[in-house]
């Protein structure tokens, strides 16, 4: 970006960016809630074994949906329950989105962000939300924060929209830039991760 390049677009991460990390909501989501999903849907026998696989793959892939997708490809899941119907692939990001949307305690987010909403609505720039979370879940978070209408469905991007890539992979950002119709040098990223901020320009 040069001094002459006009900024046209703000791209916001959602989790731990549009709400404060100190709420504990992310630990709630990525901790026991993710592990219980893995027990219920993927036949992990206990929280400990689910946590081990989720954390191992999340450290490398930075998104629970992509982490579990790759873990299944690597054969890291326990065998399916023979008493239940089994689909292929066993992990579907939509199942995770539905589970989180239905089971998380969204009260931890702390309610509507009225001042932030007013600031965003008055900034005069294109506003984009881009999260490594699954779409239905991310939409629920934005609704709970009172911010969904700032972005709308057309400017909300989730991991479902960019798989097999996700942040911080450059291909994920390139898809967003192409869809929105902007260049990287006219965007500002608002993020909690330096890996994600640096990725589009590397």
UniProtKB/TrEMBL annotation:
Molecular function as annotated in GO: phosphoglycolate phosphatase activity
Which is a GO BP term held by this UniProt record? DNA repair
Q: Which InterPro entries match?
A: HAD-like_hydrolase_sf, HAD-like_sf, HAD_sf
Q: What Gene3D superfamilies does the record tag this protein with?
A: 1.10.150.450, HAD superfamily/HAD-like
Q: Which Pfam families match?
A: Hydrolase
Q: Which domain of life is it from?
A: Eukaryota
Kindly provide the name given to this protein in its UniProt entry.
Pyrimidine 5-nucleotidase
């Amino acid at each position: 970006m040069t001094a002459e390049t006009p900024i046209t677009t703000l791209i916001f991460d959602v989790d731990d960016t549009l709400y404060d990390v100190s709420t504990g909501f992310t630990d709630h989501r990525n901790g026991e809630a993710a592990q219980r999903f893995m027990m219920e849907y993927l036949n992990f026998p206990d929280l400990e074994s689910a946590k081990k696989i989720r954390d191992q793959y999340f450290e490398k892939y930075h998104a629970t949906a992509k982490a579990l997708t790759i873990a299944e490809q690597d054969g890291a899941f326990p065998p399916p329950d023979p008493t239940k119907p089994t689909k292929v692939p066993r992990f579907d990001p939509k199942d995770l989105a539905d589970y989180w949307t239905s089971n998380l305690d969204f009260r931890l987010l702390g309610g509507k962000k009225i001042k932030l909403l007013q600031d965003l609505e008055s900034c005069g720039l294109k506003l984009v939300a881009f999260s490594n979370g699954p779409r239905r879940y991310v939409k629920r978070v934005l609704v709970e924060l009172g911010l969904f209408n700032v972005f709308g469905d057309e400017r909300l991007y989730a991991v479902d929209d960019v798989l097999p890539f996700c942040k911080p992979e450059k291909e994920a950002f390139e898809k967003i830039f192409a869809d929105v119709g902007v260049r990287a040098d006219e965007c500002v990223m608002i993020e909690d991760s330096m890996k994600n901020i640096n990725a589009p320009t590397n």
